[in-house]
Amino acid sequence: MGTLLDVKNLNTRFYTQDGVVNAVNDVSFTLDEGETLAVVGESGSGKSVTMLSVMRLIASPPGRITSGEIMFDGRDLLKLDDDEIRQIRGNRIAMIFQDPMTSLNPVLTINQQISEVLQLHLGMDKAAAKRRAIELLEKVNIPEAARRVDDYPHQFSGGMRQRVMIAMMLAANPQLLIADEPTTALDVTISAQILDLVKRLKKEVGMAVIWITHDLGVVAGMADRVIVMYAGRIVEQAPVGELYASPRHPYALGLLKSIPRLDEIRKEKLEPIEGLPPDLINYPTGCPFAPRCPYAIQKCLEERPPLAPTTSTKHLSACWRWQDVKR
Amino acid sequence: MTAQIIRRLLWLPFLLIILTIITLALAYYGPGDPVQVMLGPRAPKEAAEALRQQLGLNDPFPVYVVKYISKALQGDLGESYKYRGQPVGPLIWERLGVSAQLNLAALLIGTVIGIFLGTVAGLFRNSWVDYGIISTVVLLDSIPTFAITLPLLFLFAVRWRILPPGGWQGLLDIRAILPIAILSLGPMTVFARQTRANLLEVIGQDYIRTARSKGLPESMVITSHALRNSLIPLTTLFGLALGGSLIGGSFFMETLLGIPGIGRLAFETFLARDYPVITALVILTAATIAIANLVVDVAYAYIDPRIRAT
User: Fold this and answer.
1) pLDDT tens profile B38-91
2) Which residue from B288, B282, B256 is spatially nearest to B158, judged by alpha carbons?
3) What is the pLDDT of residue B279?
């Protein structure tokens, strides 16, 4: 399978009154056609900003993509003009967001919001678009789709709205779906339904998925590969099984240790990661995780470790002591 | 929704009666004597007493109120004290027509220009366009009507002689231009600032990001997703201004430009303690505002689907 997305040395900055926020720093990763990539990390680690950069949806001002290359299907998205990137958004790359309660326009019907995509990207007329909108709603398991298509967002529950969002974003059969914590605002059972739905649709449509989350449980059930981000940087990248079995970055290890496990009979306490993430305005010169890291040595504070292959070329870690990191 | 409208309509008569009583009480017990204004301070006591008797001012307050209300229900609002012999109804009606035409025209023009300026300012936020529009608007808003009427009158009617200095020959006459321009400044400034503020708030909403992520051109994001949401809260402002424009008038502007409107009438009758006219004006104002509020609430239900449901 070919490479669909190839991001190289992406840097995104926010120019605020307090200074320049280094939100995304030298991020490089690739995604194959049909692959599912999970991006994990705590709030403010740059997961969403990285993906919004791919969509070129960074609000400017204050934000700006300062350097890098985002090759999608052979074209550098950063070199496209506004019209060209619009033809990609919602068409070839679609994105769903965290809060389904606020992500739909409250004064437009579901039909208007889905049809818009169909009319814009597929050139359908109103009637055809509506028929297709109903099919799409059926596809995401909205009961009585033909009747509900003329309803407004407030007439749907949170889980239903997220289904509507998914239907809307899949309308043009995108090659890549970016899901930015789509289940965070939903309760556990609804969240599981949404996960199953995306898995099923992914199989049907054959699209690639980037799933942003801070729920490692979701990652295990969904992803082929995982990227762990910290302070706007990728610190570890590995096939999903390998990351769980043998993480090679202390931060990824810390994340895994902080989730409860059902297969261990009794453990005294979950282990939190002590301390706070670094200031992204006065970005540290060494490893950004060093101040919180139990493995840190003097070198870590002075010199930033590059993201480099560890046990295999598929398993990368940005740690000087990756060989010592053990579960 | 229908039940609510009916309930509120049923309340309206009670509201008006209570208001009438309060207004009459203020006139009855308040300072100032209409008879003294009418006859002058040196009028003979007997003449004053006779007039007072004739006007019903010597009745006990409850009698005074009942008489007024029962006559009003038959459509008789009494005679003006100041314009002797003229019934209050037609007197107000004539002036009202003039002011309402001017105010409505000014409100519509001011609203359209205001929304346009506010949208432009919001779209080019924090640029010189935005600063230019907003500082002009704030400046215009800070100048009272009487302070802006005179210089405009001087420039257009005296210096450049483009417009006549005043008078009233109907809405489609050249004399209406200056008063409409002056009156439209108020709604224009309010709507410009409010539109800008609402637009900026809406543009930061998640659903605008959704609209952009669908690949919609920015013009569609603004027109079909942002503007509609930002104009909804303006319904209240517009509805209340509409109610106000039907009954209100600017005393200064109408006096300086020689327009026979309600503002002038109100001011003159206040000075003359012309109770029948004042009472009628107060009741009319209250009724108009109450109905305007009701209309605004009904209009909301049509504009905002979230309210329609409840």
Assistant:
1) 887 788 888 888 888 888 888 888 988 898 888 888 888 888 888 888 888 888
2) B256
3) 87
Q: How far is CA A231 from CA A182, A249, B87, B109, in A?
A: 22, 14, 80, 53
Residue B58: DSSP 8-state: T
* A168/B215 Cβ within 8 A: no
Both tokens of A66, joined, read: 């300062």
Q: Tell me if A57 and B209 make a contact (CB, 8 A cut-off).
A: yes
Domain with CATH 1.10.3720.10 in chain B: 90-308
What torsion do the CA atoms of A29, A90, B222, B302 make, to the nearest 10 degrees? -130
- The C-alpha atoms of residue A7 and residue A28 are separated, in whole angstroms, by 5
Contact B215 A90 (CB under 8 A): yes
What is the per-residue pLDDT for B195?
Answer: 93
Kind of pairing between the strands at A316-317 and A225-230 = unpaired
| Single-letter amino acid, residue B37 | V
Q: E strand or H helix at A159, and its extent?
A: helix A158-170
Interatomic CA distance for residues B287 and B280, integer angstroms: 10
CA distance B215 to chain A (A): 4
Spell out which chain B residues touch chain A, with contact meaning CB-CB distance below 8 angstroms.
205-207, 209-218, 220, 224-225, 228-229, 232, 303-306, 309
Contact check, Cβ <8 Å, B214/A90: yes
User: Which chain B residues are within 8 Å of A63, Cβ to Cβ?
Assistant: none
Q: What is the pLDDT of residue A197?
A: 84
CA distance B250 to B261: 8
Q: What is the pLDDT of residue A245?
A: 85
Cβ atoms of residues B95 and B265 within 8 Å: yes
Q: How far apart are CA B216 and CA A83, in angstroms?
A: 10
Write the ipTM.
0.85
Query: Residues in chain A whose beta carbon is closer than 8 A to a beta carbon of chain B?
Result: 55, 57, 82-83, 86-91, 94-95, 97, 99, 102-109, 116-117, 120-121, 152, 154-155, 165, 168-169
B309 pLDDT above the threshold of 70? no
Q: If you average pLDDT over residues A244-250, what whole number do you get? A: 88
What whole-number distance in Å separates Cα of residue B201 and Cα of residue B191?
15
- Amino acid identity of B40? G
A89 strand-pairing partners:
A93
Residue A66 main-chain phi, psi, to 5 deg: -85, -30
Interchain contact, B309 vs A106, CB within 8 Å: no
B212 is written with which tokens? 């952009």
Strand order in the sheet with A3-16: A19-32, A3-16, A63-72, A75-76
Length of chain B (residues): 310
| Tens digits of residue pLDDT in B113-161 | 999 999 999 989 888 999 999 999 999 888 888 888 888 888 988 888 8
CATH T-level assignment (fold) for domain B90-308: MetI-like fold (1.10.3720)
SS3 state of residue A248: coil
Which token pair is B72? 């009003």
CB–CB contact A154 B309 (8 Å): yes
Q: How far apart are CA B259 and CA A219, in angstroms?
A: 75
B80-108 exposure pattern, b = at least 16 Cβ within 10 A, e = fewer: bbbbeeebbeebbeebbebbbbbbbbbbb
Residue A165's DSSP bridge partners are: none
Residues A227 and A39: beta-carbon distance below 8 Å:
yes
